[in-house]
Automatic annotation (TrEMBL):
EC number(s) given by UniProt: 2.1.1.63
Membership in a protein family: Belongs to the MGMT family.
Reaction equations catalysed: a 6-O-methyl-2'-deoxyguanosine in DNA + L-cysteinyl-[protein] = S-methyl-L-cysteinyl-[protein] + a 2'-deoxyguanosine in DNA; a 4-O-methyl-thymidine in DNA + L-cysteinyl-[protein] = a thymidine in DNA + S-methyl-L-cysteinyl-[protein]
Keyword DNA-binding found: yes
GO terms under cellular component: nucleoplasm
Protein name: Methylated-DNA--protein-cysteine methyltransferase
Domain of life, source organism: Eukaryota
Needed co-factor(s): Zn(2+)
NCBIfam families from the UniProt entry: ogt (TIGR00589)
Molecular functions per Gene Ontology: DNA binding; metal ion binding; methylated-DNA-[protein]-cysteine S-methyltransferase activity
GO BP field: DNA repair; methylation
């Protein structure tokens, strides 16, 4: 069962930079009010991997843009969406190099067989995130 713990932001929030405030607001919404994530701006990403033109960048942006809360996609399907239908293994590499998991939701990428596959935060964390999204999506449907 899911706990009813309250979500809190660390003290000193007034000292945070604007991008950190956006990130905090987005993560708070993801865990506590998932319906709000669609209306919040995605925090600015300044990681070098997301700045240079590459297949990894294309995969990560495609995942962020096209795979919504509570959905899952296979590595092969994501490769297709990113423009190279034969690059499912490269998609796996892109997921491993994702600098901002949860916000760029690599936990939503699963094997074609339906198995969850690996996750940098551990398979239990991936399963928890997928379950969290499924449960929250079901609650929103009521």
């Amino acid at each position: 069962t899911e706990s009813s713990a309250t979500c809190e932001v660390c003290e000193g929030a007034e000292e945070m930079t604007e991008p950190l405030k956006q990130c905090t607001a987005w993560l708070h919404a993801y865990f506590c009010e998932p319906a709000r994530t669609a209306s919040l701006p995605v925090p600015a990403f300044h990681h070098p991997l997301l700045q240079r033109d590459s297949f990894t960048r294309q995969v990560l942006w495609t995942l962020l843009r096209d795979v919504k809360f509570g959905e899952a996609i296979s590595y092969k399907q994501l490769a297709d969406l990113a423009g190279n239908s034969r690059a499912a293994r490269a998609v796996g590499g892109a997921m491993r190099s994702n600098p901002i998991p949860i916000i760029i939701p690599c936990h939503r990428v699963i094997c074609s067989s339906g198995q969850t596959g690996n996750y940098g935060g551990g398979n239990l964390m991936k399963e928890w995130l997928l379950s969290h999204e499924k449960l929250q999506k079901e609650k929103l449907a009521y």
